[in-house]
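Weekly structure sync, notes
Attendees: PL, DS, HV (note-taker this week)

Item 1: HEAT repeat domain-containing protein
DS walked through the input record. Source organism listed as Paenibacillus azoreducens. Sequence as pasted into the shared doc:
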Amino acid sequence: MEIKNLLKKWNADLPDDIIDALKSHVIKQQDNDFYLRIMNTDEITELMEFMSDIEEFQNIIPLWTDDNSNYVGFYYQGPIKYRVCYVSHEETDLSPAFRSLHTFIAALEQNADLDWDELTKDYPTGSEANPQDIDADVQCIQELNQWLFSDQPNDDPRCQMMFSIMALTPANQLDTLIPFLDDEDMYVQERACEILGYHRYLPAYDKLVEVSQNGMPNGRMAAKKVLSNMRNRN
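Item 1 (cont.): predicted structure, written out as tokens:
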């Protein structure tokens, strides 16, 4: 597979270091077995043609698959550019999980037999992230917020943008996610509970109690689970 020509077909103008990393990875995939295999040109093209008609997928190029209708792709344009996400056939969550193709490829090559769920991700952002990465994530969040308020996207693209904002939010800025617990989209409310629970963000405790009692169905269930975990770990 000629990576550079394939990506140019979709106007994905990537830096040389990313192209080189992909070329090197293709060679390793040819010589070794990977649970997540890199797809051939025809597979990628067919999938891209399908995804290009769906708004929330339009900035993503899928490159890897587990051969169970799940894919790993990267954002080649837009605010989340160059970050890596997972395209599941069961539940759509296009929030970034890896900060770059470099970090994803490194994780994959060190754990060739692992599936997506077993890989250690870069996001949600932990306290160990370096200042430069945090600054880049905050800039991305600002661009996503601007897009949300200026374009007023439909429900599905909006939900995916909100998922991305929550994944990118640094551990020292979790207070900005508390308003998400009041969102009118039950999937956004649910994800806000999960992210705040992942970080064990105790300042959200009282609000999580409120959601567990009065939230939407998904939010109530997620809040109850998070609260139970918080209590058990205290």
